[in-house]
Design a protein that fits this description.
Elements (H helix, E strand, L loop, with lengths): L11 H4 L5 H26 L2 H20 L11 H14 L22 H16 L9 H12 L8 E3 L37 E3 L4 H9 L3 H4 L4 H7 L4 H6 L11 H13 L6 H21 L7 H14 L2 H8 L10 H21 L5 H10 L2 H7 L8
Antiparallel strand pairs: 1-2
């Protein structure tokens, strides 16, 4: 049996989530295939414990469906394909350590964080039930569930661990020696680590997203002694670790290459409109390169540093995952071309300010949540409909 794109090149982009049951199942089945590459990359960088997280989240979501399908008339609106896809997407946004045990020599949240996984999955199902199923939410249910838990358990959601290059796929994320690698930014690039260590995992005191947030959110008086060039040179990890992977981060966005290729799979099957991720990334890149020089005290527009800084902002955040797998979702993306273009531009602009002044780790999700509230109004303002070709 071969997979065929039973969607017209235009209508499927947003209409599929509102279509019949069979059409809906095929639509989300292809989305799951597109998300496999970021998931496999996550298994490579964080080991088999990622599969534990995935199993825990999906199983909890299935349990939630069995419960909420029996409650009220809204229960009939829950679709297995939709909920399982949402649960997989939520798993890609989570850090890989929430089910870990106590780490040797490292202060760890330990097993006390495991209730976050069923709580996130059950909260996700409850949100889908409240909004009435697929295609009816103004804000993406996964974003709501994720941000609610992230606000309550922010420290536990901060990743610090990644497998050593010699322990890809088979290593244990719990087996870590905190003294093996310094917590600063002068670590040797992950892709160059060749010697087999005594421990499978590497512990870093702070991730790239934390370092960027700490720099951009400092008061002007605190930031002035730290030029952007010095920050990028002395306090940031090698950029290739963020492009390929090998730096602590969420399961699905640690490798920008894997997220991009997964998004290209969705584009190939015409499940999403290329304009949405393209516009979001371009506007965000320009914003990250220009806005800091305009608004930061003592900063100036140095194109070499500005472009490097923009690259770090995009690679260290879940922006790529958000643009391909969340912002392009037909449940919140407008139908019209012009409305969709404005929608993507707004997401890009708001993302710039949310990352610079709120959080690099959560900024893209917050931006999409804010803009998605006005998605239906954009559709009313630009009522053009997509027509099948």
């Amino acid at each position: 049996m071969t997979l065929e794109p039973h969607f017209s090149p235009d209508v499927s982009l947003a209409a599929a989530p509102r279509a019949g049951r069979d059409h809906l199942a095929g639509y989300y089945r292809l989305h799951v295939l597109g998300a496999l590459l970021p998931l496999i990359a996550g298994v490579g960088f964080y080991g088999w414990r990622v599969l534990e997280v995935l199993t825990f989240v999906v199983a909890s979501a299935v349990l939630g469906v069995l419960i909420w399908r029996r409650i009220g008339s809204r229960g009939a609106t829950l679709r297995w394909s939709h909920v399982i896809w949402m649960a997989l997407l939520l798993c890609l946004m989570l850090p890989p350590h929430l089910l870990q045990g106590t780490l040797r020599g490292v202060r760890s949240p330990g097993s006390a964080t495991w209730p976050m996984l069923p709580a996130a999955a059950l909260l996700l199902v409850m949100i889908i039930w409240v909004v009435g199923g697929a295609g009816l939410a103004r804000v993406h249910p996964v974003i709501l569930a994720y941000l609610l838990l992230a606000m309550l358990c922010r420290e536990a959601f901060t990743p610090h661990l990644v497998l050593h290059r010699a322990s890809l796929f088979v290593g244990d994320l719990v087996d870590v020696d905190p003294s093996a690698v310094p917590a600063g930014s002068t670590e040797e690039p992950w892709i160059f680590l060749r010697d087999k260590p005594q421990h499978d995992a590497i512990h870093l005191g702070s991730s790239a997203s934390q370092r960027l947030s700490q720099y951009t959110r400092l008061r002007p008086a605190q930031r002035a002694p730290m030029p952007m060039e010095a920050m990028l040179r002395d306090h940031m990890p090698p950029l290739e670790d963020l492009v390929v992977g090998g730096h602590p981060g969420p399961i699905g966005s640690s490798s920008a290459i894997a997220a991009i290729i997964g998004g290209l799979f969705l584009l190939y099957w015409r499940l999403i409109d290329y304009r949405v991720p393209l516009i979001i990334v371009i506007i965000a890149f320009v914003g990250f390169a220009v806005v800091p020089a305009m608004l930061m005290h003592g900063a100036y527009l140095d194109w070499a540093n500005s472009i490097t800084f923009a690259n770090y902002e995009i690679m260290a955040s879940p922006l790529v995952l958000m643009a391909f797998f969340l912002a392009s979702d037909g449940t919140i993306c407008p139908l019209g071309r012009r409305a969709r273009t404005v929608y993507a531009a707004l997401v890009g602009v708001v993302t710039v300010f949310c990352q610079l002044y709120v959080s690099v780790a959560y900024g893209p999700y917050i931006a999409l949540g804010v803009v998605a509230v006005f998605s239906s109004r954009l559709q009313e303002r630009f009522p053009e409909k997509l027509s099948p070709t």
